[in-house]
Amino acid sequence: MASLNPDKLDKLDLGWMDHAALIAVLLCVGVGVYHGTQSLARLHGPMNYILPLVVAIVAGGMVFAIWHWLLRYVPVMKPPFNLVGIAFGLLVTVVSVFTIAIFLVSALIGDRAIRDHLAHGLNEYEDALDRAHANLRLEEELITKLNESRAAAEGLAEGEASRGGCGPRCRSLRGALEGFTTAAALGRENQKDGEEIYRKTQEALARARERINGNLSPQEASSIFNNAKTAVTLAVTELENLSITQLSFNVGAISIGTEGRYEIERLTEGVRETAEAIADSREAVNVPNFTVINQYEAVTRDIGKYLLLWVFAVLLEVFPLLLLVAKVITVWSRGWPTEQA
Q: Do residues 27 and 61 make contact, with C-beta atoms less than 8 angstroms apart?
């Protein structure tokens, strides 16, 4: 064994720290691979537990054996063999960090991360619903203006009728009156319908949020989220369609003939100005396309939120490598004995 110390020291006895590192690696690999296999295979029945357990035992045993060999033999190898051993340990560590560490974090908080992601999505959809509802509520001022114009047109029409019957001028005013009355009634009805749509959708969101924060599986939580997403999308569309702002721009144009046009335009000017102000004040409502993600995407999308757990998982994977480097440096600093005859 030319690469080993010439004093017949060809391996090291492992201490408590070495055993701690090996046990940590074994547990990390076992838990991570078990969870990862279970999530990826998506089997049913007993095989959903048996196959992941077998894979976890095999993978854990292999990684345990690799690190056990590296920790016992690499520190007593001469350069460059010890450097090759460290490089191999680095490779194993990198692979472990990008696989086992992710599996481990997913196993520990994957379900919670998915629930947090879905809860954030529900908040986004609730914001869109609130904006659509607020846009509709803006039209209460427009309904008030329509009622004022209706009352004014009614007074003018009655005045014309009392002076000489209902001629063309009176009929034009009554036509405008009908337009104001219809628009105001439609606005009130739409406000009522909008409040009902908003209330029911808010209740659906509250139920979905409560169930998602419960002890549901990720699949069940995702299904509930998708139902809530569909409900909000439909509600926002319905609330947007209940707007009478565009209709109000043309209120009064149904007047008959040209008689009374000046009075009608004077009455509708305030309505148009109010409708324009509301149109300018409306917020754009963009319903987000929030997608359901799996546990691995959930824990890697916002690493900062689970930073301490990530640091813990990565350190567990790096610990054996650090221990190996420390052993190699210790042996190197003491020097290898002179080769004996």
A: no
